Structure formats: structure tokens, C-alpha cells
Amino acid sequence: MRRAVLAVLLGALVPVLASCESAGRRRYENNDLVLVTAYTAKDACTCLFVMERDEAFCRAFVKASPSVAQLTIDRERKAVETSAVLLWGARARYVDARDGCVLEL
Fold it and tell me: Confidence class of residue 10 from pLDDT cuts 50, 70 and 90?
């Protein structure tokens, strides 16, 4: 009985979700790794250069589960670069005290 109810609900839900996508909206096909790398870079940059915390604290602060993003810190340029699965990555750099860290596109 539960399986039948679940099948009916899923059958009704799929067309609704498919209709949510409209032309003109951006699709995110690999969004999980894109978001993980971007948020990790931005948050690590903010932790290190705005909040002025130590590297060990910031690495623990931005650690995702599962840990897929690798973190590279460039203290000289005040930038943080992340990568995941060789194809996805992001870079954030410290601008100033007013603007903090920004993602570089």
C-alpha cells in the first residue's frame, strides 16, 4: 500500500518539477560542487583575512562533509583558491576592510 501511494505521489510530482524550469533561467547541472568550492573559498577568505583567525580554525570552519574541496591559501596576495574533483574550482580574494572578500569569476 505504501509503495502504491509513493508511486502515485512521485508520478504527480515529476511533471510539476519539470515545469518549474523556464527559458531564461540559468540551469545548474553540477551545482553541488560549484557551490561547495565557491562557498569554501569565500568563507575561508573571510575567516582568514576579515575575521583574522588562524589557519587551523578556518580549515575546520569551512570543512564540508564529505570533504571534497581542497583549499590553497595565498597569504601574500590575500586569496584563497579551492578545487574539487579536478574540474570545479573557485577563488576569493580580500579587497579591503569595507568590502571584505569577493569571489573572482
Answer: low
Domain extent for 69: 29-104
How many domains would you assign to the chain? 1
74 - beta bridge partners? 79
CA–CA separation, 69 and 64 (whole Å): 8
The DSSP line for 50-95 is IS---HHHHHHHH--SS---EEEEETTTTEEEEEETTTEEEEEEEE
Nearest to 100 by CA among 64, 54, 52, 33: 52
What dihedral angle (degrees, nearest 10) is formed by the CA atoms of 95, 100, 101, 104? -50
CA end-to-end span of the chain, whole Å? 51
Instruction: Please indicate, yes or no, if residue 40 is contained in any of the structural domains.
Output: yes
Rounded Cα–Cα distance for residues 83 and 61 (Å): 17
Whether the full predicted model's pTM is greater than 0.85, yes or no, is: no
